[in-house]
């Protein structure tokens, strides 16, 4: 794709005059009025302290200040209940779990809805990828820490909603150049501004990493652009373009424990001989219209189209070279209105979501010596989803608010087999799902709230999870969607002295839990593993105890286990769900000096976990310490020079970046790098 050559030339050319993005100072403690925090991820826009659900908001400073902005874990590390793995293997992608949802994913994202600027990156079949999220232009990330099927339908065990800049909040141009350990290089250029009714923001970046392990390099180019046109005081039209060119991401594979002890840097078996890894070429286009005076309410109409070309070589001989060409498109319409029921104000949103995914997917055989010997699968996978929902907040009094919501979804999954030499492995399934939620919020002070909620959610198997262990293609007739019922009690607030708190108790019951296992040939298959329980406590505390100093802490204490799970391999009832730590604790101390000077010290504790359903493979706990800081200088006018740097894993602790769940041949482990450093220089003008 020509985009990567264009982006490299543009980045290097723009970088020549100078160099980085300077950061604004964070808000300081004040005894005055506190800012109103509004959230939009639940689709019914509310003030945070009127929302009867656990929602975390990550602002621009946390996303950008002194960060590499390469992977989501940098921004979301202080969100309780959320756990990320696999920062360093770009070919597999980060594994994200929220309250246990998404833990089963061997690559990509499962069970969690990902939305970027209103465009759903989660497909109708329930899978999602994160490789096109541009953190250089991200202004805000909202995380719903629990099921949200009423708002988003399939695979909404949690929600990550990213909003990028539109030019009005961050005008001007920014250039950054970064370098660091393991051959890390990144270049980024952005420009935004407002001109009358027009506003725009464009961000271009180029990333190259040699990698900590053998055969783990990455080359990636990304463009994110937003153009907005005001059509009067109440109407606007926004166009969004996102281009991803990832010509190479090598996959070093998993290792046995003995191989890790022998050499943490080595790649797994077959990886170098077969040149394992992936290449991706993706384009996303979005068009959104809003009318804030549509009759007595507000009307929003959104449409999008995504095209993705993908190829991946897996680390085993046999049917291990896969590719697909994806067309994914859809639209949504929402109507928001405020009215009165008697003397009680009612705010509601009614919406319709439509999406269609079509994958032209193939698979080729790779001989033991690495030669590609021919096609073994050729099929078209089509998923269509239609969902309609209604959600409302009724203010019973000035302090009490009742929230109710319901949704109906129809999901059609179809495989048309075009490779018939081994028989027709096509098939189709249709799922009809109802979801509901109810919440009650009591605002006992202006910025203090207690709430309870309950809701249901569901998650269909993805196309890859429907793979039939009895053959290469076709549906597994024994696999069904998993369904969950969640209950939550929460407490949040913000004091005038700079102290804020967010506490949530949750309990989730899951039926027909979807669990992965690896077959003898190294391929991953899935089965419904009976029922599971997920119970826990999430605590997030923050204290701006001085205008220059702030401390944040995020604690998760949970229990994730199979309530019942009987399979041919054994009875795993009472065992822990693999791939999930049950305790995590993150602390961050931030100092903001004069103007652009800052420093942040971060500690992260990750509890132990198991790597297999039987609970025989134990993975120990660990502590990490990260440090970053920087300074900025005004060069004249609006031009600011910024220098920053950071150290990850300051004390060189040996741990695993990823644990491959139920891996074959004991290849469970992907070692993480030891101490790494990075530094950046940039200029704003």
From TrEMBL:
Q: Give a single Pfam family match.
A: TonB_dep_Rec_b-barrel
Q: Where is the TonB-dependent receptor-like beta-barrel domain?
A: 244-650
Leader sequence segment? 1-22
> Which InterPro entries does the entry link to?
Beta-barrel_TonB, Beta-barrel_TonB_sf, Plug_dom, Plug_dom_sf, TonB-dep_rcpt-like, TonB_rcpt_CS
Q: Which residues form the TonB-dependent receptor plug domain?
A: 49-159
> What is its subcellular localisation?
Cell outer membrane
Q: Where is this motif: TonB C-terminal box?
A: 668-685
Q: Which family does it belong to?
A: Belongs to the TonB-dependent receptor family.
Record-given protein name: TonB-dependent receptor
Which organism's genome codes for this protein? Salinicola lusitanus
